[in-house]
Each structure stands twice: as C-alpha cells, then as structure tokens.
Amino acid sequence: MPCCLSDHALSELLADDVPAGDLTTEALAIGNARGHVSFRARGAMRVCGSEEAVRLFQLTGATARLHVASATTVEAGILLLEAEGGAGELHRAWKVAQTLMEWSSGIATAAAAIVAAAAPVAVACTRKNVPGTKAMSAKAVKAGGAIMHRLGLSETLLIFAEHRLFLEETPQDTVARLRRLQPERKLTVEVASVEEALVWARAGAGVLQLEKFPPEAVAACKARIAAEGLGAVLVAAGGVRADNAADYVAAGVDLIATSAAYTAPPCDVKVRFALT
User: Which CATH number do you get for residue 222?
Assistant: First the structure.
C-alpha cells in the first residue's frame, strides 16, 4: 500500500517528539556512531504503517528498507523493516515509527478479524476514528480488508434521530425532498426499532441502519421488509464485533458497520539496535 501521510505530516510527527533536539543522545555524544535497527512482529498481526515507518527513518537521514508491506498477515518473528544510519537519526525516528506501526496494525488486525467472521458480508468501519488520525485510520481499515463506511459528513446522506428531531414533515416528504435535492445520492436512515425501520422503508429510504439491533431483531426486520416487498439494504451498526459478526450475517444483514477496530489494542513490534 502507498504511504498515506505526506512528508510534511511525517516531519510534524518527528518534530512533535523531538521539539528541541534529542537530549540524551546529544548529551552522550553518540549521534554520529553508526548503527542498525530492525523491526519484527512479536506476534501474529496484519501489518499496517510499514511504509510510513520506513519514510520516517529516511526523513531523519537514515537509509531504510521495507520488508513487509501493509495489508500483509505475518507470524511472530517476521522482519518488517530495517534501517541504518547514525545513532541520532535512528533514535529520532525509532519510537514514532514503532508507535505508528503498532497502533495502525492493531486496527488492521482487528478489522481483519471482523472481516473474516462476517464473510461473505462486507464490513465497513465508521468515521468514529480518533480525531486527527483519519488518513492512517482509513489505511488501517483497508489493510484489514474492510471498507470505510464514510470518511465524513460531506460524503453521504445519513439521517439520524438527532436530525429528525428538527423536522416537521412526514418521512415520505423528507425522502421526496432529499431525492429532489440530491438525486444521485442513496438515502440512509438510522432506526432504533423494527417498526421505525418499516416506516422509513415504506417512505422509500434505500438503506436502513439498524442501530444496536440484536441479531434476532435484525432477522425480524428482514422478514417484515421482505413480506412487504420492500427493497431496503439493511446495515447492522453498533455493538458488532468479531465474536458476534457471524450471528448478524446469519440474521440476514447486507452490510456490517462497526467502530470496534478503532479501540483495538496495539500490536507489538519488537525493535532491536545493533552496531555497524
């Protein structure tokens, strides 16, 4: 996968960690000593962020080689990347590169687990990523084999109850109005009950986002909508994880939308320094 962060963005990460020089390395006067560093997977993981990690080392003046690209599944002990340069260069990039890889690989690994559990139904990760991390979060989602539900508010028509609170019109009128205003956009409505789902399906909503429905409620909703000959796409959202995704698939959902991958624990990347 390509590096998704610009040199400017990566340089800002480095500057944030080394705002006024590396006090320890400079005080020890070891900055020019030559060294080698290797990154290895400490456990099985879906790799993400290796391209950004390599570029971080390069931006400090070190040379770096990529061994495993993002979106690759590896076992423990696999060499992910290595870099050579002065101790000052290697220490400057070390923790930023390691942390970025561990965090994004954690998301990718969690996303991959949900994707495997939900197959063959697609898994979409929501926009509920940590603010400021959208580009890397989206890359991690894709590295895990999932897709983005939406990148932000500018992309899709998704009506929440918090929108409907301010409306003074029928669902039919809302759907008709949005079709006139945004004729190329499919309308998604988040609903909290089977009855609410039926109201909006009858009004013509193309996608129903079933918020925190248990699998049995999803199955009931699917049956009711099919019985009326309605063609809405059903999306299970809220509380879907790797350990219950298969239940939602069995219930008949067309898509799973989840934020679970964003709160996954980081993966563990083992870093070793050596003299050259």
Answer: 3.20.20.70
- Specify which residues 34 forms β-bridges with: 86
98 in Cβ contact with 87 (< 8 Å): no
Nearest to 36, CA basis, from 82, 68, 77? 82
At CB < 8 A and 24+ separation, what contacts does 24-30 make?
A: 24/91, 25/87, 25/88, 25/91, 26/88, 30/87, 30/88
**What pLDDT does residue 31 have?**
97
Q: Output the pLDDT for position 232.
A: 95
Same domain, 77 and 197: no
Average pLDDT, the chain: 97
Q: How far apart are CA 80 and CA 145, in angstroms?
A: 19
Q: Is the peptide bond before 215 cis (omega within 30 degrees of 0)?
A: no
What's the CATH number where 13 sits? 3.90.1170.20
Cα angle 24, 26, 32; round to 5: 120
User: Do 136 and 87 share a structural domain?
Assistant: no
Which residues on neighbouring strands pair with residue 191, listed in sequence order? 210
- Interval 93-103 mean pLDDT: 98
Residue 209: which domain range?
119-262
Per residue in 52-84, pLDDT tens?
A: 999 999 999 999 999 999 999 999 999 999 999
| 236, part of any domain | yes
Query: What's the token pair of residue 8?
Result: 């400017």
Query: Which pLDDT score, from 0 to 100, does residue 136 have?
Result: 98
Q: At what angle do helices 87-118 and 50-60 cross, to 10 degrees?
A: 170
How many alpha carbons lie under 13 Å from residue 161 in its C-beta half-sphere? Answer: 8
Question: Which residue is listed with tokens 């999306």?
Answer: 235
Assess whether 249 and 126 both reside in one domain. Answer: yes
Same domain, 184 and 238: yes
Task: Assign 185 to helix, strand or coil.
Answer: coil
Query: Residue 147's closest CA among 135, 139, 157, 155?
Result: 139
